[in-house]
Write a structure and sequence with these properties.
The chain has about 260 residues and is mainly alpha-helical. The chain contains 9 helices and 2 strands, in the order ββααααααααα. The chain has a two-stranded antiparallel ribbon with strand order 1-2. Strand 1 and strand 2 form a beta hairpin. Helix 1 runs antiparallel to helix 3, helix 3 packs antiparallel against helix 4 and helix 5 runs antiparallel to helix 6. The N and C termini lie far apart (about 65 Å).
């Protein structure tokens, strides 16, 4: 016999002992063990998929718009790099969550896509800084960050390949370090237009990390993290569009 009850803010199914459903929740499962992966509920799987799937088309359109607004080859290349990173983030994330939801029995496939999901974050961070590092004037030392950030992304990829899910705190530290290191260079630029938006987006990412690490504590924590990522990415896109490419009014005149 089943009944519903609330435990820790999540709606749980209370079933008779011995049932395979004992301990399972509708909106949140128990927290994962150390160095283990959290197992989302069906509802959480769906939310994880949809929260990034709905952003794929806007990311593609936004990337095409920046390419359309480019005045020279360097701006076009930069728009392409940024757009590829933005689109790859949402596409890879969506594919992984679909596989984890519908094809979880294919352990090797799921594991590979999970690694790709983690790896693409490093390249997304590098791509997000590319417009600022490529299109703004930098000093002799600061200009090295243009290539060093990609070296950091490659290093993060190797780390995921070798130690995926083994040292989660270290992995989170790498993400945050890579996110903040280029910011030190960007804030030292003579032209400070757009830095407030850049800082605002960074703050949103940092706040979202709370939910990123709250699976099994907060229902739909990972989907909420996705929403923070989407919001921060939108703020950064707006800054890139407004301060590094053309304004919307200029674009309308350009059509």
């Amino acid at each position: 016999m089943k009944s519903a009850m609330r435990t820790g803010g999540a709606l749980r199914e209370d079933v008779t002992p011995g049932s395979a459903m004992v301990g399972k929740t509708l909106f949140m499962n128990h927290r994962a063990p150390a160095n283990g992966r959290y197992k989302p509920t069906c509802y959480e799987h769906a939310a994880n998929c949809y929260t990034h799937a709905f952003l794929i088309v806007p990311a593609i359109v936004g990337s095409a718009l920046l390419h359309r607004l480019s005045d020279d080859c360097w701006e076009k290349i930069t728009a392409w790099i940024y757009g590829m990173g933005l689109c790859a983030l949402f596409i890879v994330s969506t594919v992984f969550h679909i596989v984890a939801w519908k094809k979880s029995h294919l352990r090797t496939v799921e594991h590979c896509f999970h690694m790709c999901d983690r790896m693409v974050i490093y390249f997304f961070i590098a791509a997000s800084y590319a417009p600022w590092l490529n299109l703004r004037e930098l000093g002799p030392l600061a200009s090295h960050m243009r290539w060093f950030i990609w070296l950091m992304a490659a290093g993060g990829t190797i780390y995921v390949f070798l130690y995926h899910e083994k040292y989660k705190v270290i992995e989170l530290f790498f993400y945050l370090t890579m996110g903040f290191s280029p910011a030190l260079v960007v804030t030292s630029m003579n032209n400070t237009d757009g830095l407030q938006e850049l800082a605002c987006g960074g703050l949103i990412y940092c706040l979202g990390v709370v939910f990123f690490k709250s699976d099994g504590i907060i229902p739909f924590a990972h989907a909420i993290w996705h929403l923070f990522v989407a919001t921060a990415a939108a703020v950064h896109y707006y800054a890139i569009w407004k301060y590094l490419y053309r304004s919307p009014t200029d674009f309308m005149r350009h059509l």
